[in-house]
Specification:
Number of strands: 5
Bound molecules: zinc ion
Order of helices and strands: HEEHEEE
Strand content: 15-25%
Strand order of the largest sheet: 2-1-3-4-5
CATH topology: Herpes Virus-1
Shape: globular
Oligomer: single chain
CATH architecture: 2-Layer Sandwich
Number of domains: 1
Distance between the termini: 35 Å
Radius of gyration: 13 Å
Largest sheet: 5 strands, antiparallel
Helix content: 10-25%
Length: 102
């Protein structure tokens, strides 16, 4: 079932907009892991979190690609093609180290 993601030219490599899930911060809620929208920099919580804001962000905006914001993880995900992009950092042209300040 593994296919190729055709949206990787849309990756903007943005800085995270917030230091946690944007919606959870507003609600005062908590999350498990964080996902960064690679189109607009929206930070949302993963599908293991009860609110699943990263997936909801895709539902709202149709931004196809997110990546894990966890330090130890280096992968992205395309919601449209439903493929893993791994390792994610090598797909970036700049190759600079991401700084996550949590
Ligand atoms: Zn794709
Ligand atoms: Zn959230
Ligand atoms: Zn987005």
């Amino acid at each position: 079932m593994q296919e190729t993601c055709t949206h990787q030219d849309q990756i903007q490599n943005p800085s995270p907009n917030t230091n946690g899930c944007e919606e959870c911060l507003k609600m005062g809620d908590s999350w498990v892991h964080l996902r960064l929208c690679e189109i607009c920099g929206h930070v949302g919580c993963c599908d293991s979190s009860k609110n699943r804001h990263a997936t909801k962000h895709f539902g709202k905006t149709e931004h196809p690609i997110m990546r894990s914001l966890e330090q130890a993880e280096d992968w992205g995900w395309c919601y449209v093609d439903e493929v893993m992009i791994e390792p994610f950092s090598r797909k970036k042209s700049s190759g600079r180290k991401e700084q996550t300040t949590l």
